[in-house]
Amino acid sequence: EVVALQGVDFEARQGEFVTIVGRSGSGKSSLLQIIGGMDAPSAGKVTVAGMDLTSPLGAD
Hints:
By secondary structure, this protein is mostly loops. It contains one helix and two strands; from the N terminus they run H-E-E. The chain has one helix at residues 28-35; strands at residues 47-48, 51-52. Strand 1 and strand 2 form a beta hairpin. The mean pLDDT is 85.
């Protein structure tokens, strides 16, 4: 099993622009796929406005 992301933690406020940069294979696409709900993290969670997007019911 390949670990694409590890220890990622960031906050983006409403109206902010965020740039994700890194070398090829560093996990940029994996991060965006998880944030966008196209893939699920194997551990941890994604929260937006306090709502857990990785929970089946969207609850904390």
